[in-house]
Amino acid sequence: MNYKNPVLKGFHPDPSVCKVGGDYYLVTSSFEYFPGIPIFHSKNLVDWEQIGHVLTRESQLPLKRLHSYTVSQGIYAPTIRHHKGRFYIIALNVTTQKNFYVWADRAEGPWSEPVTIDGFAGFDPSLFFDDDGKVYLTASAFPGFGPEGILQAELDIESGQLVSESKLIWEGTGGSSPEGPHLYKINDWYYLLVAEGGTEYGHMVTIARSRNANGQFESSPDNPILSNRSTKLTIQATGHADLIEATDGSWWAVFLGFRPVKSTKVHHLGRETNLAPVEWSEEGWPIIGENGRAKVEHDSKLLPLGNPTPWQQKEEFDNDSLSPVWNFYRNPQKNSWSLTEKKGALTLHGQACSLNDLESPAFIGRRQQHFNCEVSTLMEFIPRNEGEEAGLTIFMNENHHYEIAKTLKDGKSILLFRRCVGSLWKVEKELEYDDSSVVLTVKATAMDFAFSFTKTNGEMELFGRGETSLLSTQVAGGFTGLYFAMYATGNGKVSTAPAHFEYFDYIPGDE
Fold this sequence. Notes:
The chain has one helix at residues 473-476, and strands spanning 2-4, 16-20, 23-27, 33-34, 36-42, 49-55, 75-83, 86-93, 98-104, 115-117, 122-129, 135-141, 150-154, 167-170, 179-186, 189-196, 204-210, 218-219, 236-245, 251-258, 272-280, 286-288, 297-299, 314-315, 328-329, 337-338, 346-349, 362-367, 373-381, 389-397, 400-409, 412-421, 424-432, 437-444, 448-454, 460-467, 483-489, 498-508. The chain has 511 residues and is an all-beta fold. It folds into 2 domains: 2-299, Glycosyl hydrolase domain, family 43 (Tachylectin-2, Chain A), CATH 2.115.10.20; 314-508, Sandwich (Jelly Rolls), CATH 2.60.120.200. The longest helix has 4 residues, at 473-476. This is Alpha-N-arabinofuranosidase. InterPro entries: ConA-like_dom_sf, GH43_C2, Glyco_hydro_43, Glyco_hydro_beta-prop_sf, Glycosyl_Hydrlase_43. It comes from Saliterribacillus persicus. Pfam families: GH43_C2, Glyco_hydro_43.
């Protein structure tokens, strides 16, 4: 029986996985979205259920911008490991420029406060617990601070203090940006798994091994052991992998890749999590996928495929907490949202900042996970002052987003459709609209988004369109994927009018 990739659709990059008994746990990067580091559980490596987030408190994940040199800050490339009954997750917060780890006795949490690692100039950190009790911190050297390659040091896991100097243990095979390293001990060999080529079309996975955890590492003669570069395969930019031995003794790799829109060769869903089998040569070297290629479909072998978690199509906001699919953009203002102010509705209070700013807007969204889909929300909003605004946005970052919204302009309540593409910003259409409630809808295809609204009498009207390519990673930059989000703003002042969203419907279509 075959399974299909990606096993986690939409923006779920840099996957890392561990096994505890017959259970698998997986984490991915979350960048500036809060809560941070989504965590998933599976019994078969194919069907994953999100069981929460690792970083759920601002003290664990401060996202206040200190600089603006990149549109993607926050959490990069977490690694999850399990050792002596305890889970550990290590990551880099680019916003604070600190490597740290947290721990928990249960994957569902609660997770500890961060233990910061000082004096280590690396990114994409990983942990390895050796048989002799030593703990190794392995990471990628920051560009501009010496030779590029993989750094390693011994770590005191109780205190977070380094107990040895960091040293360069492998420079990779010569590809650009050696990153995302993981160290393993398999059959008395230490294997060092690395991503090279940049997280773009040239991305690849390479591997080296040594009899000593600190090297000298020899490169596999089969490198790269995974890459879809220079092919027409559906999944591209395959890399940043993590190896796992299944309960039946078979080996697998989780890795990132994106699915470009064929006609444009750009992508907007983000880098996704994929799975491929691993075979070992007689000489003891692994190869991922089908001779180093990742396909949409692979043989599941003896993995116990079951029923996947049902898709959560409609959120009616009738609980006292949000389900794990929802995120804020950066740390939310405490007074910016509520699930109790109006029963059976999500209430947003617009802040002075807007979607264009580097602060945290009133914003609650979920990933776009399908090229073809439709989302809609019923919004009740009566703006009282000029500039008060609420609606539905398709959001890549503060410089690239589309929205359909309601606002007050020249004393009149209007609906608007707006596009922001870098420095190009335009309100494409405006229409006077006096009803307090409106259904806002976005219908997505691989090529474009169609924005509509439905009046209280049930009449739907197409209001505007926007190309998906203008919100793609290749245009917008950064390392994330698109979000569908409800938002509110006072555009320079705190809004006096609350916006109530009574439901959010996400209907997947055929891929």
